[in-house]
Design goal:
Layout (H helix, E strand, L loop, with lengths): L26 E8 L7 E11 L2 E4 L4
Antiparallel strand pairs: 1-2, 2-3
């Protein structure tokens, strides 16, 4: 997807670090995590990403 660049080294179990964002990167994002077999339990959260000039703000979803 255009405008989405994930930095794996700066990302953690609780956050995803995006770099080189631009205005087209803004919008609603959904993160979904699934466990491995045999449980395959899935958790999902969503939030809005807003771009303000060279700074960006994420509405944190815990």
């Amino acid at each position: 997807m255009s405008g989405i660049n994930v930095d794996i080294r700066k990302s953690t179990k609780k956050s995803v670090f995006l770099h080189n964002v631009n205005l087209s990167t803004r919008g609603k994002y959904r993160c979904e995590i699934s466990a491995e077999a045999p449980s395959f339990v899935t958790a999902a959260k969503e939030g809005n990403l807003e771009i303000n000039g060279k700074l960006w703000n994420v509405i944190k979803v815990d």
